[in-house]
């Protein structure tokens, strides 16, 4: 009964999975450098930047959720022609909606490639010294492509499953903080100017990017109306996790050291020692877990990109794998673009700020237009 | 429409791929994801457990200690070599920089050298006095080097420590490692790991110090602490003096102390258990005033004079004289650190930076530190006197 199964798949994402998707997408490769990027402008007060950035990034998540609620059962690509297009001019609608869909797709694609490259770079310098980065990248991309060949509901379920593994390094981090941390390294908590805080907030916002995939995934929610709570929970959890990461890193390494180290968070794991030397050199184990964190990010972005292409071109479902694998070489080539690790950092900052702008711009513009044109179900607007 | 199920064409098992191709894909992924490039069997490595760094006309002379698994007791069949045979090998490399010297060692051995098991970095006194920046960079860039290893300064040549034949442990490195570990545990040695050394080097408000050891005939002796001014070693503290510094900086108890009895007929040995340190910092017209108040709790472990400790007032007298001893010692250490060596190993600058950021911003700590007014006050409390009531 193939036909029936597909219908069930269409809207299968429950609130738990919605939370898992956003959390898993946000927590990715940025965590490894987050303490450094907030310590550079703010020294010891880095935590505040993360907390403020969490609040700042909750705004676009709220807007995205409101927008998705107006069009239940439709992804952005489907409802955008209703919002910005005209009923009797489908060609023109497609053209106008392309102006919105292209930047979004481009951002997702660039994110995939830079995250992959970033991760390969970490693995190469810290653990697998002789393994070429090309291999690391291609395996990650291929695996993501295999996952993205499936329906988005499947990707959501996988996120839910893998999210459990994500919490393990967090516990280890807290353990390290108790072992090695000292309050003295965290003081003074407030010795920065407003301008430095803004810099820190922007820098840490890059680590939050990725929630924009909700624009796509929300089309497959069972109950989009009930999605605000899981979304807000996910941003809170991520903010809290990031805050703990920054706190522990600064407490163990001190701000002067955190600024100098390539991947401060990883270095904290190097410091942890288990009583009785059960585990030595735990950082490789942590990186093995980290693969999962990065992979969840990549596969969710990937699934979103593939879905955008599918919906925009009105592809049949059976072409999904083809499109999915066609993205691999593009993402790989884009990922190989930066020359060295500093280029990678620079690129990821640029893409991060681009993502931040996009996360604000798309929902605001669309909501504004939709509100002006009185679109969406009336009752929705009454509620919001 | 009902189709007979064809497992080979079904995409039930591998998502988008039919069975056979799906299997191939999985096999490919599994084989590629195991990281075979970096797979190295344990016997294909020359594990270095200790590094000793000395001066050399070319630059550095690096001696490394490599345990020899065949010669270690209880390892594998054939029984250990024992009887006069070495359980460890020493390899020596020379080069202008640390990594060049390491490369020189690599050229003398059959397997790839591996630094992931390194537990000691022994720095010769001469190298330490010249400055350790050039060494630190190589260590920091190397992913295998841990942050939890013990950097130690060696009196004389660092290599001499590797030549010690410890009797209690087959591998001298393990011996020294355990020695430092237990020393840190009971609070007499400095808990200065490589990671903390890095931290102290990059922090403008602190100066580092390291444990200072000396090789003897068949053991190693802890001499105290080597004090640094940023990366250059400027002086040392003996074991008694080190106790003061460790109390102030790490709130460690330090070594036992002996003072003469009030009746001058014997000695009393006091073993500190817990130390609490309080800092009070204020600034008056361009001069910093720092008050350090220490409270030392401990027990009496030995008394060789016929004084009755259970009598009223005796304990108080003891506490006073112990406090006096600590203050004299503390002030002489302070003079040495602050006036002669001008190095902030106590980390007073860090206290100001952390808890009084406004004062810190108005200071030029490096310049003002030698003239800062530092007050040491000790309060000793004897909590226990052991099992003998008198």
From TrEMBL, chain A:
Membrane topology: Multi-pass membrane protein
Keyword check for Membrane: yes
Subcellular location(s) of the protein: Membrane
Predominant location: membrane
Pfam families assigned: Spore_permease
Keyword annotations of the record: Germination, Membrane, Transmembrane, Transmembrane helix, Transport
Segments traversing the membrane: 20-40, 46-67, 96-120, 126-149, 161-178, 198-221, 233-256, 287-310, 322-339, 351-372
Family as reported in the entry's similarity comment: Belongs to the amino acid-polyamine-organocation (APC) superfamily. Spore germination protein (SGP) (TC 2.A.3.9) family.
Name of the featured protein: Endospore germination permease
From TrEMBL, chain B:
Main location, first listed in the record: membrane
Protein name: Ger(X)C family spore germination protein
PANTHER family linked to this entry: SPORE GERMINATION PROTEIN B3 (PTHR35789:SF1)
InterPro entries, alphabetized: GerAC_N (IPR057336), Spore_GerAC-like (IPR008844), Spore_GerAC-like_C (IPR046953), Spore_GerAC_C_sf (IPR038501)
Protein species of origin: Polycladomyces zharkentensis
Membrane topology: Lipid-anchor
Family label: Belongs to the GerABKC lipoprotein family.
Keywords: Germination, Lipoprotein, Membrane, Palmitate, Signal, Transmembrane, Transmembrane helix
Domain Spore germination protein N-terminal: 38-214
Subcellular localization, as worded in the UniProt entry: Membrane
Domain Spore germination GerAC-like C-terminal: 224-386
Residue ranges of the TM segments: 20-37
């Amino acid at each position: 009964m193939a036909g029936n199964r597909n219908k069930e798949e269409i809207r299968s994402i429950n609130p738990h999975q919605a939370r898992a998707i956003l959390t898993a997408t946000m927590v990715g490769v940025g965590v490894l450098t987050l303490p450094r990027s907030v310590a550079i402008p703010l020294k010891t007060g880095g935590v505040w930047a993360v907390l403020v950035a969490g609040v700042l990034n909750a705004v676009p998540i709220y807007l995205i959720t409101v927008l998705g609620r107006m069009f239940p059962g439709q992804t952005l690509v489907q409802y955008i022609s209703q919002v910005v297009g005209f009923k009797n001019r489908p060609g023109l609608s497609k053209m106008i909606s392309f102006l919105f869909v292209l930047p979004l797709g481009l951002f997702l694609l660039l994110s995939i490639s830079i995250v992959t490259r970033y991760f390969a770079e970490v693995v190469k310098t810290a653990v697998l010294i002789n393994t070429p980065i090309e291999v690391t990248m291609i395996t990650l991309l291929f695996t993501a492509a295999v996952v993205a060949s499936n329906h988005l509901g499947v990707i959501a379920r996988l996120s839910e499953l893998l999210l459990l593994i994500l919490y393990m390094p967090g516990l280890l981090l807290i353990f390290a903080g108790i072992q090695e941390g000292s309050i003295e390294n965290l003081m003074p908590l407030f010795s920065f100017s407003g301008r430095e805080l803004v810099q820190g907030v922007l820098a840490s916002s890059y680590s939050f990017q990725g929630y924009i995939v909700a624009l796509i995934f929300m089309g497959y929610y069972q109950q989009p109306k009930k999605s605000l709570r899981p979304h807000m929970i996910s941003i809170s959890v991520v903010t809290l996790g990031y805050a703990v990461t920054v706190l522990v890193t600064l407490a163990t390494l001190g701000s002067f050291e955190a600024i100098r180290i390539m991947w401060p968070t990883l270095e904290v794991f190097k410091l942890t020692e288990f009583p009785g030397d059960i585990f030595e050199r735990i950082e490789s184990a942590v990186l093995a877990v980290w693969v999962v964190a990065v992979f969840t990010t990549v596969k969710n972005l990937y699934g979103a990109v593939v879905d955008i292409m599918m919906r925009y071109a009105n592809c049949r479902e059976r072409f999904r794998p083809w499109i999915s694998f066609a993205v691999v070489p593009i993402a790989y080539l884009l990922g190989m673009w930066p020359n060295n690790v500093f280029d990678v950092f620079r690129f990821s900052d640029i893409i991060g700020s681009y993502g931040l702008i996009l996360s604000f711009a798309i929902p605001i513009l669309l909501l504004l237009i939709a509100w002006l044109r009185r679109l969406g179900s009336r009752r929705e607007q009454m509620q919001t | 429409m009902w189709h007979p199920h064809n497992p080979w064409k079904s995409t039930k098992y591998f998502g988008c791929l039919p069975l056979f191709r799906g299997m191939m894909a999985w096999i490919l992924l599994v084989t590629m994801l195991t990281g075979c490039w970096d797979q190295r069997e344990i016997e294909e490595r020359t594990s270095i457990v200790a590094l000793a760094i000395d001066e050399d006309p070319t630059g550095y002379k690096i001696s490394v200690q490599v345990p020899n698994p065949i010669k270690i007791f209880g390892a594998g069949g054939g029984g250990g070599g024992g009887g006069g045979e070495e359980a460890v090998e020493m390899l020596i490399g020379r080069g202008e920089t640390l990594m060049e010297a390491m490369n020189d060692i690599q050229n003398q051995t059959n397997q790839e050298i591996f630094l992931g098991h390194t537990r000691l970095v022994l720095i010769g006194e001469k190298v330490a006095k010249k400055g350790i920046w050039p060494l630190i960079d190589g260590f920091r860039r190397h992913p295998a080097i841990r942050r939890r290893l013990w950097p130690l300064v060696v009196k004389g040549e660092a290599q001499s420590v590797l030549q010690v034949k410890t009797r209690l442990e087959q591998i001298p490195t393990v011996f020294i490692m355990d020695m430092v570990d237990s020393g840190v545990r009971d609070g007499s040695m400095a808990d200065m790991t490589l990671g903390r050394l890095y931290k102290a080097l990059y922090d403008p408000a602190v100066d580092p110090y390291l444990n200072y050891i000396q090789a003897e005939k068949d053991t190693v002796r802890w001499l105290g602490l080597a004090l640094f001014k940023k990366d250059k070693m400027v002086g040392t503290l003996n074991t008694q003096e080190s106790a003061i510094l460790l109390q102030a900086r790490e709130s460690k108890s330090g070594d036992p102390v002996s003072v003469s009895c009030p009746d001058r007929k014997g000695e009393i040995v006091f073993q500190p258990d817990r130390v609490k340190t309080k800092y009070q910092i204020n600034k008056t017209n361009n001069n910093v005033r720092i008050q350090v108040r220490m409270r030392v709790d401990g027990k009496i472990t030995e008394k060789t004079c016929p004084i009755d400790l259970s009598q009223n007032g005796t304990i108080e007298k003891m506490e006073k004289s112990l406090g006096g001893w600590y203050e004299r010692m503390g002030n002489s250490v302070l003079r040495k650190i602050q006036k002669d060596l001008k190095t902030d190993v106590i980390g007073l600058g860090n206290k100001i930076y952390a808890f009084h950021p406004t004062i810190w911003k108005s200071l030029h700590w490096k310049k003002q530190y030698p003239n800062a007014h530092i007050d040491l006050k000790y309060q000793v409390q004897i909590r226990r006197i052991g099992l003998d009531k008198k």
